[in-house]
Amino acid sequence: MSAVELTAAEAARCALRAGLPLAGERHADVAATANHIHAVISTLRDLDFGETLPAAQAAQAAQAAQAAQAAHPVRAAHVVEREVADASL
Predict the structure, then answer these.
(1) Closest C-alpha to 88, from 55, 53, 64, 48
(2) Using CA atoms, how far apart are residues 77 and 16, in angstroms rounded to an integer?
(3) Phi-psi region of 75 (alpha: psi -120 to 50; beta: other; left: phi over 0)
(4) Is the pTM of this model over 0.70?
(5) Cα separations (Å) of 73 from 2, 49, 61?
């Protein structure tokens, strides 16, 4: 988590400014939820995805694997390896 977290009063002000007035008993819960979301997003930003394929390329590789398996079960592994290698370039 960041060193500076959103307080209940700040959450109430932000909500009011956005046109979403909050009941007093919800301020602390909203602030806690916003701080948790911020912590999760910060963690995701710190992850090293390295050679992870973007979702679209991963989906294409999966479709190619399924098509190869259906057409030529023996050659399917080779096609998948080639598709993944091509997608990562």
Answers:
(1) 53
(2) 57
(3) alpha
(4) no
(5) 51, 31, 16
